[in-house]
Design brief:
Length: about 280
């Protein structure tokens, strides 16, 4: 049997179609290898960021955070996104308060959101990944109700409210809503064990903690527990709409007898853009 080895030029001359196919295949392989390398680097970066923010990781996932924003009842995460991307929400009611609290350091704020309604789980995970890609330090606890206990609790949802993203869902019993069971978190203990024990970078500006509470009528119960647990006065500012007058009066009386509690309680209901889902780009 005789083997004939042809030069590259002879191959191109006698088998032009095959040679073009081989060149195309080589280019495709190179492009595929480059793509896989880039994708592997992207996944490695995301996994490393997620590891830093994961509560299961070693150490405190808020270590290194000078500023912390806690969104209790985040719904679809709009308030958190307003913090990092205010240009997408012009004339938002909360923007001046964010600016007053964090100044020009909003991109350095570490945000933690809690949402009880499992209907938002998938969207919130997409939002969290979007934030991590943009190097916003965000962690969202889905299907988790803010409460004064770590036990499972009944949660009342509004499956027919697709326009307002079921924003009236609540821990408060309601015969007109759908009852489900969700996990809950003792937020006072969590703040004590995670937020107040984080390692804060030295130097200026001073560290700050800001909380939004929108847990539909359960707010005063949770905030009262913050007071009796000794956590309340460690918070710089708490804002929301569901502070009943009795609670506001009690806080005013308590603050008359102390000069050490710096906590500012702000009655604010920012419903701007609450039904808008701006695409993740």
């Amino acid at each position: 049997m005789k083997f004939i080895f042809l030069s590259r030029s002879m191959n191109e001359k006698f088998h032009p179609g095959i040679y073009k196919l081989i060149r195309s295949f080589k280019r495709l392989c190179i492009c595929l290898i480059v793509f896989l390398l880039i994708y592997s680097l992207y996944r490695f970066t995301i996994n490393q960021i997620s590891l830093v923010l994961s509560p299961q990781s070693q150490g405190n996932f808020l270590d290194g955070c000078r500023f912390v924003y806690i969104d209790m009842g985040t719904n679809i995460g709009i308030q958190i996104r307003k913090l990092y991307e205010p240009q997408l929400y012009p004339n938002s009611t909360i923007s001046p308060l964010f600016a007053r609290m964090f100044g020009t350091y909003t991109k350095q704020v570490c945000s933690v959101g809690f949402e009880a309604n499992p209907v938002h789980d998938v969207y919130l995970k997409m939002f969290e990944n979007y934030c991590l890609r943009n190097k916003y330090r965000v962690k969202i606890f889905t299907s988790t109700a803010v409460s004064i206990t770590n036990e499972s609790q009944a949660f009342y949802t509004q499956p027919n409210d697709t326009l307002y993203h079921q924003w009236g869902s609540s821990l408060q019993p309601n015969a007109n809503k759908t009852k489900i069971m969700v996990s809950s978190i003792d937020i006072a203990s969590w703040i004590k064990g995670t937020v107040l024990t984080r390692k804060i970078p030295s130097g200026l500006p001073a560290p700050k903690i800001m909380i939004k509470t929108d847990i539909e009528g359960h707010d005063s119960i949770v905030l009262t527990n913050l007071i009796f647990s000794g956590v309340y006065c460690s918070i710089d500012l708490i804002y929301g709409e569901h502070f009943n007058q009795e609670f506001q009066n009690a806080v005013s009386v308590l603050k008359q007898y102390t000069n050490s509690c710096r906590t500012e309680l702000v009655l604010l209901d920012d419903e701007t853009y609450h039904v808008v889902k701006i695409p993740f780009f």
